[in-house]
Amino acid sequence: MLERSEYPPGVPCWIDTAQPDPEAATRFYGGLFGWEFEDQMPSDAPGNYFMARLHGRDVAAVGSQPDSAPPTPVWNTYVAVDSADDAATKITNAGGSTLAEPFDILDAGRMGIFSDPSGAVFSVWQAKQHIGAQLVNEPGTWNFSDLNTRNVDGAEAFYGAVFGWVAKSFGAGGMEFPMFCLPGYGDFLEKSDPDLRARLAEMNGPTGFEDVGAGLVAMTSDQFPDDVPPHWSVTFAVDDTDAIAARAGELGGTVMVPPFDAGPTRVAILSDPQGAVFTASRFDPEAL
Fold it and tell me: Do the domain assignments include residue 194?
């Protein structure tokens, strides 16, 4: 299992979704991915925050939607930082906007909610007792987050100034995939996974891929309607994309884009019954 016990600053570390009916959402994702849930909020709290676990590890969360939230829920991405307050200053200086000033989540950590200059919303996470996702890249867990933007150059400048990210393009399976890299991330991962670079080499993985922290999608008019704003999206690893897409439909979700092959992955774009969109992806290393 690909377990995590810490995240270096500048790496996406957590995802959650706030839903109008969080209990209904737990039934959907529990049925889809096999997640088990535990409410982290006190019994007298006005809302819920259901921690999702797989194999006993924290993998995501489903919470109650605030009254001020947009009507359609989304999956939110959190980036690890040493200091949420320092990150807020960097974000402001780089042209981003503050949607919620940094605040403490009990003893779990400290967070803030922001948007980049194009309007894509993300959060930062200063870990205390909760480090983020404890299990990733396994079937039924979070695999990746992508920034979808119409201003790639602006995104490179902003996220580079805030988190130190560098945009690079990697070829795989006859396709090119733009990515955000954090220099040195591969070195960090190798401390707990010494065979990381050796495995990538065996799979003919592109040089430098070990530093990848997030994806970068250029929103074109032929793929994204003009009314779709820039946003962050999430991908879950699965062992059978076609089966997961079919199961999502059975559970009341929507198959927005049926399964298709994209380089070494087979992906489908789905939404849960309340409208939160996500991607399911199966990786085939032999396709590299």
Answer: yes
